Amino acid sequence: MAGEDVFDVVVIGAGPVGENVAGRVVRGGLTAAVVEERLAGGECAYYACVPSKALLRPVELAADVGRMPGLELRGPIDAPAVLARRDKTVSHLDDRGQVSWIEGLPATFVRGRGRLAGPLHVEVTAPDGIRSLRARHAVVIATGSDPLVPGVPGLLEARPWTNREATSVQQVPKRLVVIGGGPVGCEMSQALHSLGAHETTVLVRGDRLLTRTEPFAGGLLAASLQESGIDVRFGRSTTEVRRPVPDGPVTVRTDDGATVEADEILVATGRRPAVRELGLDTVGLPADRPIEVDADMRATGVPWLYAVGDVNGRNLLTHMGKYQARVCGDVIVARATGTPDDRPDLRDTADDQGAPQVIFTDPQICAVGRTESQARADGFNVRAVEYDMGEVTGAYLRGEHYTGRAKMVVDEDRRVLVGVTFAGPGVVDLLHSATIAVVGEVPLDRLWHAVPAFPTVSEIWLRLLEEYGL
């Protein structure tokens, strides 16, 4: 074992969350080491957010063209060209640029598998042996999450795809079975179907897609998928998977006795925090559960340990992990330098108010805050208002047959929004205004005076408020 290296902060995990922690602590005058076993930049940059959106953007453009009279999409989407651009967006799975960015902070990048080995002590298993790191002030866990593969008989042996294989695909299968009706299942089934998976079947255990959103959102998306030729089957649980020949066809049996044969199977049934083999038991924490943290991202009962992003289980979204990282990094700097650590910006409040999320399908699904059912369950005195987005002039001008819907959930006692959902083409650009309204708790009487430009889709705000009675 090499000698012990000492830093103010040691970060385990070099995804966007870990990178943000390192950037904040270095900006505050501290030294940092960042440990990563895989690719610097993390899951989001190479196998999730970035490549999936690169695959979905042509789908969105093709749909927009199809809605506009006078334009014509000549032939199918050029799959090889789309995949080539996807490869470019992920730097061809080469992380040298990200490593250089980390080193330019400046921070020390350490390649290897990091694990806790006692208080403020991290051991890194590297290609050239074991390296010992010591933190003066804090160790930060930012290892993200891993795809969850359910224990269906034969599924693991069939070598199913997860988001990693789906987003890095080089040869699109002609036949694809997708298990799961959440964001990953919906996005990737639509992307791969448009790129050549002409026989795409989506198996959904429940009765609708996107169960954490307003019901109309999943309904609009299901109609769009089915109209494009995707076979969406609700109320179907997978009971058995068989793939007798390696790289041969896969057969999926469902609980109604039906079977589906495909070339590949994609499992999109959720994720679990990547906490295993991190040595959490060496500091008195459970080794197989999300790391419980306070609003300052400090692990409960371990004052020098912090956990940010997916590993703390608060919110499995990249932008929320980066937000937590900014809070965490600034808290560590404050405590290390003896400055006040109780400012409002040094506590995570956004997760409790409801994180913004986008599903980049056609139609796009955007939401922030609580759904109506969530708000009622949380004890709010709620009134909900919906409006057909196709009735807004700005939406109509985007093309024929614009289909969409918007909903706002109002806390009647305070007359502020606690949730907003948009479903429709191009609605992603409406989300941040909704986020500001929800997080800023803008009174409806004040929001009424935020005049939307005409003719834009943002006029939906005026229509919702009019429907409410303002």
UniProtKB/TrEMBL annotation:
Co-factor requirement: FAD
Entry-linked SUPFAM superfamilies: FAD/NAD(P)-binding domain, FAD/NAD-linked reductases, dimerisation (C-terminal) domain
Entry keyword set: FAD, Flavoprotein
Source superkingdom: Bacteria
Organism of provenance: Actinoallomurus oryzae
Record-annotated FAD/NAD(P)-binding domain positions: 7-320
Transmembrane segments: none
Keyword RNA-binding recorded: no
Record family assignment: Belongs to the class-I pyridine nucleotide-disulfide oxidoreductase family.
Gene3D superfamilies: 3.30.390.30, FAD/NAD(P)-binding domain (3.50.50.60)
Lineage: Bacteria, Bacillati, Actinomycetota, Actinomycetes, Streptosporangiales
The protein's name: NAD(P)/FAD-dependent oxidoreductase
Residues in Pyridine nucleotide-disulphide oxidoreductase dimerisation domain copies: 356-461
